[in-house]
Amino acid sequence: AAPYCGPQTPQHRRFFDRFCVKSVKLKLEKYVVLPGKLARYHTEGFLGEGSYGKVVKCTKLDTNEAVAVKIVRKDCFRQGKKEARMLKKIQKLDPEKNNLLKFIENFKYKGHFVLAFEMLDVSIYDFMSRRNFAPLHLSEIRVVAQQLLVALNALKRAGLVHADIKPDNIMLVNHESQPFKVKLIDFGLAVKVSKLWFAGTIQAIGYRAPEVILGLPMDESVDMWALGCCLAYMAIVQIHGQPRDDVLKKAKDGLRSLDDLLITRPRPKDPAEPENSLGFISLLKRMLLVDSNVRITPTEALAHCFITMKHLSDERYSPNVPSAWKMATGQIHLFLENLTCF
Predict the structure, then answer these.
(1) Cα 219 vs. chain centroid, distance in angstroms?
(2) Exposed, middle or buried by CB within 10 Å (0-12, 13-18, 19+), for 234?
(3) Less Cβ crowding at N or C end of the chain, within 10 Å?
């Protein structure tokens, strides 16, 4: 007989029964109409699946608009209601201005809790995957970073923590028509700062702040740590095949600090790239400070020289960035009076 690979103790088996056996895939008929409170939604196709349920593409029948609908598993009904309450708070922050997911409504369908959202394009993770995990240009990272810092600034003002920032939860809105315009999504773990201590395990392990791991006091700065990890992820090249000899020589002892990220970048073609890289690493260092009390805040980060380009006299963008940066600069002019670089 095949070896048993499940939980080994009675306690583990009870945990497995509670969280795994019940997670049987939802059975959703294709091409049905979901009757919401504000509209009716015609299911068109499967978009993805998370720990709490499935996301399907739907057409909002009254407007013929494409929307995303999340159908929560029956045993996660309470989590769905919690997410809906948080999304209603988010809607008061002007989602379009602050680069946050637009929530439409919630309703029940055959015992499932259902959430309807605006339809977005693709996650940063999937976008990177499609380009074989080649790093983004720093001018592209700057545009993404600025928009997400605006989002974190809005959440901070509202006393909220996202608690699950990762590349999967950063979505391109429509990369073809609005290059590198992004929104922060998935507020299933979001919580008030005052209740963060009682929230249980938060953040994906690769994006988890030190204070979360160590069980120390936490605040909204856990989101800044996670965002710093995401920006580093976008900047680091995924090396395939034999690296250049100079990269092998410099990296033989491993990456010891954020300064060593420079050796993972392709050889710069833009004369401004070295200075750009130093500005980027300067920002990362302040986002990834182990001491959360001195970690950079969203307002301070929006005024950092990497975001404002104060250190550059002639920035040369990648082909896709001009329209996105033009869109973004209107959101940071209020911060320019208090510029800081280090």
Answers:
(1) 18
(2) buried
(3) N
Which residues make Cβ contacts (< 8 Å) with residue 303, sequence separation at least 6? Answer: 332, 335, 336, 338, 339, 340
**155 vs 98: CA distance, rounded Å:** 9
| Phi, psi angles (nearest 5°) of residue 108 | -110, 145
Hey, what are 232's tokens? 């580093």
C-alpha span between 114 and 54 (Å, rounded): 10
Residue 131: Cβ-neighbour burial (10 angstroms; 0-12, 13-18, 19+): exposed
CA–CA separation, 307 and 325 (whole Å): 10
**pLDDT, tens digit, for every residue of 233-284?**
999 855 444 455 665 555 555 567 787 776 666 666 666 677 888 999 999 9
Helical spans, DSSP H, in 102-244: 124-130, 138-157, 210-214, 221-235
Cβ(143)–Cβ(273) under 8 Å?
no
Residues pairing with 65 in the sheet: 60
Per residue in 226-235, pLDDT (tens digit) is: 999 999 999 9
Residue positions annotated with a catalytic role: 164
Closest CA to 228 of 298, 152, 146, 288: 288
Both structure tokens of 302: 């929006």
State the Cα–Cα distance between residues 88 and 262, nearest whole angstrom: 42
Whether the CB-CB separation of 115 and 68 falls below 8 Å is answered with no
Angle at 295 between CA 155 and CA 194, to 5 degrees: 45
Q: Does 108 count as an annotated binding residue?
A: no
> Distance from first CA to last CA of the chain, Å, rounded?
62
Backbone angles phi, psi at 168, to 5 degrees: -65, -25
User: Angle, to 10 degrees, between the axis of helix 322-329 and the axis of helix 138-157?
Assistant: 30
Domains observed in the chain: 26-118 (3.30.200.20), 122-338 (1.10.510.10)
